[in-house]
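Action item from last week, closing it out:
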Amino acid sequence: MFSFSLTKAQRYTDFGLIGGGTYYMGEINPKRHFYKLSPAFGALFRININKRYAVRISGIYAGLRGSDSDFPDRDVPLRSPQSFNKQILDFSSQLEFNFLPYITGEEKWLYSTYVSAGLGCGISTGSSPFLTIPFGVGFKVNLTKRLSSGCEWSFRKTFRDNIDNVENQLGNTLINNNDWYSFIGVFITYKFFKFAADCPAYN
């Protein structure tokens, strides 16, 4: 039973690299998407539970920046003009749901769109770790029996209101917290384990 479980986990496990850009939304940038997009890169590890669900662990290194000078028509009462430029480490564990049947490397399940959500942790320059709620949408496709690729747009709801060095005047609460950051990019994954033949009973 242990041998069968290990074989199953290996058969459905893949590792990959992810790259793209990140941007921030908060007091300085309340609603402009793709504002000051900064380079981001990292790695991911995915366990495909079945053709509909997968669990993914990922780590991303990225930049976040913003400046009040980019919004000259917007008033910023009760504070002086601000700007920031920070680096951030983002770690997350997410559950993926495939809208179409999909497993990395399986030719009969070539592609699928998906949604993901989970829990994460962020560490930005000059701050202690903070909790995040990551969620997003994406698309993935099999390129070969071992390689797959895809794209993703995801958001991180943070529980820290001073990523931009500007705290909400109403306080750091769940409702009034305004600091978010988002990742958009592409990934490529590789299935390390290959089997000479599949077991008919297993399939």
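Closing note: The CA atoms of residues 138 and 152 lie 4 Å apart.
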